[in-house]
UniProtKB/TrEMBL annotation:
Database matches in PANTHER family: NUCLEASE YHCG-RELATED (PTHR30547:SF5), UNCHARACTERIZED PROTEIN YHCG-RELATED (PTHR30547)
Protein name according to UniProt: DUF1016 N-terminal domain-containing protein
Classification of source organism: Bacteria, Pseudomonadati, Pseudomonadota, Gammaproteobacteria, Oceanospirillales
Residues annotated as signal peptide: none
Limits of the YhcG N-terminal domain: 14-147
Pfam families according to UniProt: DUF1016_N (PF17761)
Length: 169
């Protein structure tokens, strides 16, 4: 009897390992990017604005910074994204409160939620339920948090959200 796996079995084992490694790398890259963008937001707020919510020279300063960063590091550092990084730090000033399993796209969606309690709830749900950024955007768009708060019967609202939220890819 041959104890060695068939070529198909071997292929599937190797394929699974490669897929797991790629997912792990993607999670590591996302975590590093979110961490970096949070720190960039912190630097913009603390060093260039001395803690004010907006620098007196804000827009022009961010434009100049954007040009220099884009020249050195490529896309991803346009003025709008720098403003998003600044807003990210303002919304989540404590790094330990940031959920590393969420991507920068998740956080850009969360920045649009003005209510800080709702934002924190959506962040925790997105992480806990493994929502894709599209699923998160959909839940925010349908006011899932607000409907749960106002509903006397929570189960039907939660069931509807689960039914219409595909698992993340």
């Amino acid at each position: 009897m041959n104890d060695f796996p068939t070529t198909d079995t071997l292929y599937h084992h190797i394929s699974e390992l490669v897929q797991q490694a790629r997912q792990q790398i993607q999670r590591s890259v996302n975590t590093a990017m979110v961490h970096t963008y949070w720190h960039i937001g912190r630097l913009i707020i603390e060093h260039e604005q001395q803690g004010d919510s907006r620098a007196a020279y804000g827009r022009q300063q961010l434009e100049q910074l954007s040009i220099r960063l884009t020249g050195e590091f490529g896309k991803g550092f346009d003025a709008r994204n720098l403003r998003n990084m600044r807003a990210f730090y303002q919304c989540f000033p404590i790094w330990n409160a940031v959920r590393p399993e969420l991507s920068w796209t998740h956080y850009r969606v969360l920045l649009r939620v003005e209510n800080s309690d709702a934002r924190a709830w959506y962040m925790d749900e997105a992480a806990g339920q493994h929502w894709s950024s599209r699923a998160l955007e959909r839940q925010i768009g349908t006011l899932y948090y607000e409907r749960l708060l106002s509903s006397r019967e929570k189960d039907p609202v939660a069931a509807e959200a689960q039914e219409k939220t595909p698992p993340s890819a």
